[in-house]
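Q: I have 259 residues here and want to know how they pack in 3D. Can you give me a structure?
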Amino acid sequence: PAPLPAMPVEIRAGEVLPSGLDAILDHAALQVGRFGPEALDPVEPGAGVRRAGEDLAAGDRILRAGQIIGPEQILAAGIAGIGSVAVRHPTVRLDWESGPERDWLTLRLGRSGARIVGESGPADFLICPATDDRPTIALAPGGAATVKRMESGIRLALPPRFDALTGAWCALVLPILARLSGATLRSTPATLAAKVASAVGWSDVVLLRLDNGRAHPLAVGDAPIDRILRANGFAILDPGSEGAPAGAPIMAISLDRPF
């Protein structure tokens, strides 16, 4: 043991080191006997200390425009003394009857950072069920969807059945939410585990099961409920594509974390 000239100053984690001190002795390495305080372990200068700028240097970026704010960003902002930030919440008026499809839309919108408003509140866009099931765009599934720009914002009519609704969500709603929130759809390269076939002239939504860089196709141009339950990602095939063989690269987007 090394005798200390005085009793060390007690300091708690996260507190500023008192002036003139440059190291911290672990409490378990302190012994107080009849000869006074003693250090049981050697302590080098800077031991147990985070110097100013080691965690966050001046100019470090904690958040960027369009980024989803998560627990780590909140922690870093709080440590940096930032108490609030401006956020974008796309506002949506959901004109949809009660049922499983409305519940699904409500949950998906909430997870994507959108805020559902009532009849009287201003909204960036309106989502309502399409009244005509004839295709209006070359999208499968979801071709009956329509997008119109109104004086009050965007009117998005989506197919009311769950399979076509899923396709329209991937191809139309997510890009609109990304644009309104300043975010970018986050596509990840993956390798197809099996071939996919597509009709030329149509944009086919491919439901995928993403696993360790491999994309397992579950459905192409269709979305049965059992495939939706297994899917955690999707891709949209270009209308000029006839498909892709197994082993081909594909850009996939996560269903749960698209931005």
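Q: Anything worth noting?
A: The first strand starts at residue 2 and ends at 3. The first helix runs from residue 71 to 79.
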